[in-house]
Amino acid sequence: MSRYIANLISQGEGLTLDFKHSINDSRKIARSLVAFANTNGGTLLIGVKDNGNVTGVNSDEEFYMVEAASQLYCKPEVPFEVVRWEINGKAVLEVKVKPSRKKPHKAPDKTGHFKAYVRVNDENVVASPIQLKIWKAEKNRKPINVIFGPAENTLIQYLKENSVITIPRFSRLGFLSMVEAEKILVSLTALGLIDYRFEKEEDLFSLHQGA
User: Fold this and answer.
1) Interval 57-110: pLDDT, tens
2) Which partner from 29, 50, 59, 146 sits 20 to 30 angstroms from 13, CA to CA?
3) Are 138 and 108 in the same domain?
4) Model pTM?
5) C-alpha span between 90 and 45 (Å, rounded)
6) Per-residue model confidence as pLDDT tens digits over 94-108
7) Which of 122, 140, 1, 129 is nearest to 51 (CA)?
8) With 0-12 CB in 10 A as exposed, 13-18 as middle and 19+ as buried, what is 203?
9) What CA–CA distance (Å, rounded) separates 56 from 69?
10) Domain boundaries, position 153
11) What's the number of domains the chain is made of?
12) Same domain for 92 and 27?
């Protein structure tokens, strides 16, 4: 077995790696493609079970299924690269997706409604409303000088002393309405000054490393 593929498989599924035994639904693959594109990019290994066992696939057929997923079920289309590997006589497809600048990409859910997905640990999950607002702010971002008022300074100082903050916590800390607190956090995230993640049903913001 290729040492490269063996190392990939040994890592197990995670934020940037997903295994698929085979493809029988291009829409499901589309969700993986958009989740990788909307997050940090990633690799889809087709012909590998969740436990890491190599089963192999019909490489031509699986390639066309991935192509259909990208072209028909990803909006906008998600570019990808494919490398075919021969592992003990079995074909494995390595599908590589880069982080996209055209976020959000959307794919159909189980009911056929198109939604934006992100990668959280080893799962594809629907992007939160706050994440959608951050993407919109990033898209509309213009070169500006950030003017820090009392609320922004309070926020940065808090995050230097604490790992994360929520919107309700910032609202109370800065004597702001929830709408005002959310707007400031979204704007600073879009500017790259703070980081956002959705975890355990909570919107969490932390100081960007180097900020």
Assistant:
1) 987 888 999 999 999 999 999 999 999 998 888 999 999 999 999 999 999 999
2) 59
3) no
4) 0.88
5) 13
6) 999 999 999 999 999
7) 122
8) buried
9) 20
10) 130-207
11) 2
12) yes
